[in-house]
Amino acid sequence: MKFISALIAAFFALVLVGPPAASAAPEAQISRGDVLKRAATWLTANNGKQVPYSMSKYWKDGYRTDCSGFVSMAANLGNANPKGGPNTVALAGSKYTTPIKIADLKPGDLFIDPVDEPGDDFRHVVIFEKWTKADKSQYMAYEQRGGHGTDHRPLTYGLKNTKYKPYRLKNVTG
């Protein structure tokens, strides 16, 4: 009788509360230096040229060749689930990143615009490397951009009146 009562209680707990939440596997830890080294590999991975940009194609390593696939590759976030790595909106979510202040930026942090609005700068993510000006009005970044492919160039995204915000990847150490 106790067994049947326990079985009924377990059944109602499952029905009323739901199954236990599956915990997501933690992402592999990676150093800031390794994020930047991995990002730099796509500058010459295409027979000495940068990896071309595409929102629908995948590189030889299984990552999408768009900005979020590039960041997923550099940060070693995995490319199986979701296929090609998390998209820009997911990268800005609490599973992968934490919002930070611009003053706290370190190499390997991100500037993300997850907002879907028409224009030249919607839903994009870049990897911060270092400040290029003492007044912190410009920084070097790695990015995968449309019409060009992988790039390493000075940027100002996120520094003034913009939808770009700074984030820190949860799996990056140091």
Strand order of the largest sheet: 2-7-3-4-5-6
What's the tally of helices? 4
Largest sheet: 6 strands, antiparallel
From the alpha carbons, calculate the radius of gyration and give it in angstroms. Answer: 20 Å
Helix content: 10-25%
Task: Return the average pLDDT rounded to an integer.
Answer: 86
Give the structural class: alpha+beta
In sequence order, what are the helices and strands, one letter per element?
HEHHHEEEEEEE
Note the gap between the termini.
57 Å
Shape: globular
Low-confidence spans = 2-25
Proportion of strand residues: 15-25%
What's the total count of β strands? 8
Give a description of the structure.
There is one protein chain. With 174 residues, the chain is α+β, with helices and mostly antiparallel strands. Helix content is 22%, strand content 22%. It has helices at residues 2-17, 32-41, 67-74, 88-91, and strands spanning 30-31, 97-99, 110-113, 124-131, 139-145, 149-155, 165-169, 172-173. The chain has a six-stranded antiparallel β-sheet with strand order 2-7-3-4-5-6. The chain has a two-stranded parallel sheet with strand order 1-8. Helix 2 packs across helix 3 (67-74). Mean pLDDT is 86; it is low at 2-25.
